[in-house]
Amino acid sequence: MKTRSANRSILIVGSVALDDIDGPFGKHPDLLGGSASFISRAAAYFTDKVSVVAVVGHDFPSQYLTEMDALGIDISGIERADGSTFHWSGKYSDDLSSRETLDTRLGVFATFQPKLAALHKRAELVFLGNIDPVLQLDVVEQTEAPVLVALDTMNFWIGGKRADLLKTLRKVHTLLVNDEEARQLAEEHNLRKAAARILKMGPSSVVIKRGDAGALLFHGGGVFGVPALPLEDVRDPTGAGDSFAGGFMGYLSYAGNLEPATIRTAMIVGSTMASFAVEKFSVDGLRGLTSEAIQQRFDAFTELTKFDSIRL
Amino acid sequence: MKTRSANRSILIVGSVALDDIDGPFGKHPDLLGGSASFISRAAAYFTDKVSVVAVVGHDFPSQYLTEMDALGIDISGIERADGSTFHWSGKYSDDLSSRETLDTRLGVFATFQPKLAALHKRAELVFLGNIDPVLQLDVVEQTEAPVLVALDTMNFWIGGKRADLLKTLRKVHTLLVNDEEARQLAEEHNLRKAAARILKMGPSSVVIKRGDAGALLFHGGGVFGVPALPLEDVRDPTGAGDSFAGGFMGYLSYAGNLEPATIRTAMIVGSTMASFAVEKFSVDGLRGLTSEAIQQRFDAFTELTKFDSIRL
Questions:
Q1: What ipTM did this prediction achieve?
Q2: Do A106 and A38 meet the contact criterion of CB atoms below 8 Å apart?
Q3: Which residues lie below 8 Å from residue A168, measured CB to CB, with a gap of 6+?
Q4: pLDDT, tens digit (0-9, with 9 covering 90-100), for B251-277
Q5: Are the C-beta atoms of B58 and B46 separated by less than 8 Å?
Q6: Surface of A (230-259) touching B: CB under 8 A
Q7: How far is B252 from chain A (nearest CA, A)?
Q8: At what angle do helices B35-43 and B240-255 cross, to 10 degrees?
Q9: Is A33 helix (H, G, I), strand (E, B) or coil?
């Protein structure tokens, strides 16, 4: 899948973390986590031009960096700083439908100040993971002329740094958020109206990730909706949204264009990668997938959603 | 749309009620409600062979019966009994995402004991609205040889009359429930596993209605999923599931077969009719729709969900 000359370079700026996950399948301490871990691995199935800019601490196992390197991900922008790796602890409800944060230790992430190398400044597709919108803007301003800037954010920034976030959004093409974040940002419960408001804030596309209710895309090409694939075994929803983002960005790189139809297909590729991610803990669901397995899962979405038109 | 000779007759047994609705758009007392009111009106757009068996009280406005008759719905099975019409009062949250029941007065519905006339016994498609499963079974046993029996139920019966419901389900082809009801019936949170369990209880198809998360169908033809159409104006979700059921059954009558592809299309027609219903109060959203309007809304689902396949 990686041989297409159209492949566009992707820069991912986000977190590389260690997670403690508790839930119906027991306690799993010190799992590899963080948005950039999921996004880069999901994207790397579609392009060999993925770079990550992030920071880890002295306690971060080198094997994960070696693995990323072996997957063809450019890790030259992952700095190892003096201190502890960002560490998140969460507990899921028995039915995995909700979770609570037990502990967040920012560690070296607290003073993360992304500085882009020349290679990274030239990235064609930029994904700004969920960090301080001031830093996100700073990253955009370091880039030279990306064809697409995508951004993820969360309630903490929408509520706490709204003015900065709005300023950053003016430089963003695609916003990827969940439904509650979209509602909070737009100050509007109705998702269609909320998306319309967000499209006036800067982005030309809004992707709303809704977990097991699927995902919606609002853009110039209209509205697109995809249900989640009903899965038999869901073990760990952590990283589902990031895996979606990785598949989405990876496919945009692979396709080499940003046509409305391409963005729709990218939504399905994103859904495909998210469906793999939730079946196992950490990034395990994204490990060792073949082109055939990804194709088959994509085709399951085609089969899931196809229906005949009628002429009344 | 009503001229196809293949049209199959539909019998709907359910409630015809008066509702008091409170919510973000103010108080609306004494609205026409009840499952059979929505189902029959939605179905009547697709077939002229809709019969309703229900009961109303002395206080039920005759104009609603006159209207049903004018729509070509057979109301000979709607009995006017001595007492008050079933009356439900509910209050929606400001964002319409949840509701609480303020009052339920069963009135004449408390002693409803459906007795089918000869015409109704011969119905080809039977829809058993959400009533006591003992009565639902009694209705099925009165029918002669329906090609499809569909059933709706609720938490009250799943919890309180489980054994009776399970007995009834053995005579049912299609179960239509919401996600919480499916989980409660199957005693399983995972919807795919829950559907698999329900398919062992008798039905050969399970339709799971998920409100603004769309709907899922599990049957021999695999899994089918449709997102809800994101609507600009939602005023009253009451009757959305019943309008879905009406469109679903109406299209099955119209198509004249029960092929897997037909059932998928019926899911879209159901979603279409539900999308009209929630835009206005009571059955107003289902009033006066043209074939063109229904076709256009159906096409909006095609447009919402279409995407190109990929070959990796």
A1: 0.94
A2: no
A3: A128, A133, A134, A136, A137, A140, A151
A4: 999 999 999 999 999 999 999 999 999
A5: no
A6: 230-234, 251
A7: 13
A8: 40
A9: strand
Residues A286/A42, Cβ–Cβ less than 8 Å: yes
Listed as own residue / partner, the contacts of A67-76 with beta carbons closer than 8 Å and 24 or more positions apart are A68/A40, A68/A41, A71/A40, A71/A41, A71/A44, A72/A2, A72/A44, A72/A48, A73/A40, A73/A41, A73/A44, A74/A49, A74/A50, A74/A119, A76/A51, A76/A117, A76/A119
For chain A, say whether B289 makes contact (Cβ under 8 Å).
Answer: no
Question: Taking a C-beta distance cutoff of 8 angstroms, is the pair A250, A1 a contact?
Answer: no
A192/B231 touch (CB, cutoff 8 Å), yes or no: yes
| B152, B153, B154, B155 alpha-carbon torsion, rounded to 10° | -140
Question: Encoding tokens for residue B63?
Answer: 């104009």
Are B35 and B54 within 8 A, CB to CB?
no
Question: How many A/B residue pairs have CB atoms within 8 Å?
Answer: 138
CB-CB neighbors (< 8 A) of B261 in chain A: 307-308
CB contact under 8 A, B97 and A189: yes
Rounded distance, CA B125 to CA A270, Å? 40
Q: Which residues contact A86 (CB under 8 A, 6 or more apart)?
A: A15, A16, A17, A18, A34, A57, A105, A106, A107, A108, A109
Residue in the block written with tokens 């930029």: A126
Surface of B (147-206) touching A: CB under 8 A: 189-193, 195
Task: Profile chain A (312 residues) by mean pLDDT over runs of 10 residues.
Answer: 72 97 96 98 97 98 98 98 97 92 95 96 97 97 98 96 98 97 96 96 97 94 94 95 98 95 97 98 97 98 96 89
CB distance B241 to B178 below 8 Å: yes
The SS3 of residue A150 is strand
Residue A226's DSSP bridge partners are: A215
CB contact under 8 A, A223 and B230: yes
